[in-house]
Amino acid sequence: MSVESRVAELLRRLELGTLIEPPRPVRGGLLHKLYRAVTEEGAYAVKALNPEIMARPHALDNMRNSERAAAAFSSLVPAIAALELNGARVHELAGRYYTVYRWADGQSIFPPEITAAHCAAIGDILGRMHRAHLTAEGISPERPSMPDFDWAGTLRQAKSVGPERAWLMRFEAALDDLNAWSAATRAAMGGLSDAPVISHRDLDPKNVLWHGMEPMVIDWEAAGYVDPRLELLEVILYWADDARGGLTRSLFAALTTAYARHFPLDSSWAAVLQAGRAGTLAWLAYNLRRAMGHVSQDAGEILLGESQVLETLDALYAYDSKIATLKMWL
């Protein structure tokens, strides 16, 4: 069944009308595929969820729970949640899963176009979410932890896949640093908060659409409990980025000032700064599997994995140079 046929059948089943033009792929997603679909009832964003992700244990429950969280947050912040249709927010068709949203006109803003006004808006949203201490059905607190990444074993697997590529040589050169970062990050996780909050957990520029200066927060599938300081740190790194490997003090100040109006800025940052690599290390591990074809044999997915390995290694080295600055500013 073609993408057009699947989207058409999904919208028909959900009583959202008949397509009046072919569904159009929308660029931007790094895990799932998004399509713009227009029927006589209106315009919709249809997200085709990654089959490999959805095959994991608990993935379907996690997706349902995260969309419940988005819906709950929508009364507090400009959150775009999946439509609840026929009593569900995640829908199955021919063994694949989908979420459907009202189409929202807007575009993401990236460094160096990000301004202090953008950062103030994001700081305000993050502070409101953390202050809410929201609870959501199906989402339970859990102690922060990090997998024991076997970087050397992954390297051996990668070398057996085929001829060396730029991403593989770069990965091999970084092996000692990856082992050191992983050990430091794992040790630091024990110093994280015993009072986590439910939040978005992936509030980077690609997951915020702007209509003028009005933000709309999308892609809530990572929503769950998080140490608020750790999420604030990640958001600072995304939004105060100067596009040259450093941070901009004025953007940092705008974001943290707006955040602090709703939630206190803690003074103990040593463990948080070390633990700040956890998400990036996990993303690297996933994209190494992607680049080796272990996620999908699709050529586009493999190429995306290769490019993300290189970008993620760049991000890890850049983070090393930012820790001292962040410790001083925070």
Task: Please give a quick description of this structure.
By secondary structure, the protein is an alpha+beta fold.
Summarize the helices and strands and which ones pair or pack:
Blueprint: H1 3-13, E1 24-26, E2 33-39, E3 42-48, H2 51-54, H3 59-73, E4 91-93, E5 96-102, H4 116-132, H5 151-161, H6 166-173, H7 175-189, E6 197-199, E7 208-211, E8 214-217, E9 224-226, H8 228-239, H9 249-260, H10 270-275, H11 278-291, H12 299-329
Antiparallel strand pairs: 1-2, 2-3, 3-5, 4-5, 6-9, 7-8
Task: Characterise this structure.
With 330 residues, the chain is of the alpha+beta class. It folds into two domains: 3-102, 2-Layer Sandwich (Phosphorylase Kinase, domain 1); 116-329, Aminoglycoside 3'-phosphotransferase, Chain: A, domain 2, CATH 3.90.1200. It has helices at residues 3-13, 51-54, 59-73, 116-132, 151-161, 166-173, 175-189, 228-239, 249-260, 270-275, 278-291, 299-329, and strands at 24-26, 33-39, 42-48, 91-93, 96-102, 197-199, 208-211, 214-217, 224-226. The strands form three sheets. It has a five-stranded antiparallel beta sheet with strand order 1-2-3-5-4. Strands 6-9 form a two-stranded antiparallel sheet. Strands 7-8 form a two-stranded antiparallel ribbon. The longest helix is centred in the C-terminal third of the chain and has 31 residues, at 299-329.
